[in-house]
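Lab meeting, action items carried over

1. Structure of the two-component assembly. Owner: GW. Status: complete.
Input record:
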Amino acid sequence: MQSPAQPTYRAKPLGQRAVRALRMYWPLYLMIVPGMIFFLVYKYAPMFGIQIAFKNFSLKKVISASPWLWEDGKTWFYWFQRFFRSPANTQIIANTLIISIGKLLAQMIPPLIFALAISETCLKRYARVIQTISYLPHFLSWVIIFGICATMLGESSGVVNNLIRKMGGEAIPFLNNKAYIRGVLIGTSLWQSLGWSSIVFLAAIAGIDTSMYEAATIDGCGRFRKIWYITLPNLGRIFVVLLITKVGHILDGGFEQVYIFLNDRVSSTAQIIDTWVYTQGLGKQQYSLTTAVGLLKSVLSCGLVLGTNALARKWDSSLW
Amino acid sequence: MVKSKNDLLFEILIAVIITLVGLACLIPILFVISYSFTPMEEVLRNGGFVLIPRHVTLSAYRFMLKNEMLISALQNSAFITVVGTAINMVVTMMLAYPLSRTYLPGRGLFIKLIVFTMIFSAGTIPTYLVVKETGVINSLWALIFPSLVTVYNFIVMKSFFEGLPNDLFESARIDGAGEFKILFRIVLPLSLPIITTISLYYAVSHWNVYTAAILYIQDANKMPLQVILRRMIDAARTIDLNVEDEMPPETMRMAAVCIATAPIIVIYPFIQRYFVQGTLAGAVKG
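Predicted assembly:
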């Protein structure tokens, strides 16, 4: 069996080529069957279900038997309209964006500073130990982190509040106050990802051509100047790549974390699109409404990824 | 390097930053561990803050490990972690190996189909309806099949396979080895680092699973560890469980947290370099 497909000078019809490829490589195609079935069933089949965003669907009927919205005399964007009519829902979108952008900044800037500190310090062995410790929170689940927070930040018996009371202050209900919850969400997200996110930056710093630094030293550059003029510009590419991947998730906000930290007292500032979809969709069985909102979110996210991608490519054609 | 006054100040500043990060990561974890071992009177005496307990008690653990709910949750999580990871790995490898062979006709199309699911998803509710249709709902399989292959892991594995020399496969083929034999006898032994990494990624995500469980599982006895733990934390927060008097709910909650974290903390020192390798492999791909 030759590895590159024999060049065919006259293109044969697709069907014939497919049969030939199958005959030649059938074991390879056989291997990908389970994986492809997974993607078709759990990733592509749900896409047919998107149509319930334009229907009035309940579990009593199958999807195809439910009438389209316009057959009931409604507009096709009925569910979208209904979502946006409520001011509480506008608040949900605002919450999602605020929490997402906060987390995005927390996952980009502090890890960069930490990576710079690690790469600049002369205490290399010490830095390695700290690095290893700093990855650990990445592997803890949000429930665990919530448990730690409840013990550290709890109102009546949390350590932090005990300390505040001892110093004569008043206890702060970090986890139950709508003014603090976003800070807690962003802060815990920073805590979880700081060390782990710095890995990428450290790798990029290690990849910078050392001759640049040598040349700069000869030219009489100090450390700050080297960081400013060599290290940071060289991290630009990886920064943009990370930004693109994160911007695509800006409407997510992190369902698992937010849902675990959510309670009635903080929902006005911490409810995000995904947690709303979960409680309204599965809890209150508003399948069509929540599917419509989910669809809007998916389309916008998809557009954001493609848009930022195109922008980055235009901006720096050597990026890919 | 010339040590000017500025340089020294800079060194001190970054040493402080590094130390603060280290302490910030370590103290909460250490605190929770010691809390779970500390007898109540010592906790109260110290205003709730104990980093190194003077007396150690195992009573919280003894009590928690008698809790049937927690035991069944541990069993469920162990099951999905072991069985789920094994299935994940077999399927991901069988998907990544053929699609890493650049000569395979249709390869580009398959890869595009896979990567597209990363950019666009149907959303929570339509996926839920399909999971329901496929009949795995309210069983542990609902935590395994709907997350069979992670696109990220697939890409990392595929790019690793792409780096393996083609001649190797050629000579195996000449010796009459079939593709399955090549995958499991030649590719697999050569890919142990990446296989370890990806298995650990999958294993951690199974052990920590929460969202899929609250979406697809209703019965309490089928819930994985994290969901039960979340409920215990809430129970300890609101009602004072009303169990043995010398047992504060806080301590028991921390014991449960430690039981749930123990597997990760114990294997962490041995595996962390694999994790770092994996994230770099992914980062290079962008």
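2. GW to write a short summary for the group page. Key points so far: The two ends of chain B are 35 Å apart (CA to CA). Chain B has two domains: 1-57, 61-286.
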